Amino acid sequence: MRLDSSREALTAAARVDNTALERAASSAPRIAAAVRSRRARNVGSSLASAQGDVARPVAAAATPRDFSAFDLSGRRALVTGSTRGIGLGLARALLDAGAMVVLHGRDAGQVAAIVDRLARETGRIDQLDGIAFDVTDAGAMRDAIDGLEQRLGGIDVLVNNAGIGYSGSLIDVPLDDWNRVISTDLTSCLALAQRVVPGMLERREGKIINICSVFNRLGRDRVGPYAAAKAGLGALTQVMCANWAASGIQVNAIAPGFIATEMTTKLQSDEEFDLWLRKRVPASRWGRVEDLGGIAVFLASHAADFVNGQVIFVDGGLPAVL
How far apart are CA 27 and CA 23, in angstroms? Predict the structure, then answer.
């Protein structure tokens, strides 16, 4: 009985399989036709797309990046306090980028010596000039700047770098010392801008770079007058931007961290402070004057024409990490 049932089941299954094969065979032409139709439509779409691509302009191949905006050729730059340290480094960077650079200091003989040295090192005597005056002497500064502008035809880039430091307890700072630091590090920057900016306004372009400090953002107990002056200079940078940006003048500031220069020699030789600094700064080193040159060239160039009112910190990450 079970054998007969199995035979019947096999016979039924065979009929089902034959029916499926017959249906598949009958539908195969339709499937093949559908495939041929789809292929035809795809080919047509590809041809149409290709024809459309021919009609549309093809995107130009990538071209080498143009860094000519960083070229300072033909730009006349005055860097105050540039016979040594950060100022000299900034002057050298601007010179290397093509600018005509005016070195500055209080001692005419020292300025002449540095001009001669850079001329011998670079062979660019035609791109160098020098001027001497005390930035806190309004009359001497006025006469020197007026004469320089007449000689050069104008100043395109003013770098306010001249400054002095101070170390002492805030409660014991003599007001004469306080006023001397504020006058040198802050007030002189406004006075110089007041002499240089009229020419920039007439030409409707110019760059001012104020040299601030990491103390714009951080404080230490023995740098009161210096920190106050540099913080004030950061605010003055923004006010200058508010006044002159619409006339094509960009005013920005660089805030260096602890840079190894003659001004920080005493701190560098202090083993305890040196160890603290290397642990505190994420870069684990003192800054170098060369670390500031690139940002100075950028801010002095047309590449920074839409950068204004900024205080840019170059400090190895000091304020960024607890």
Answer: 6
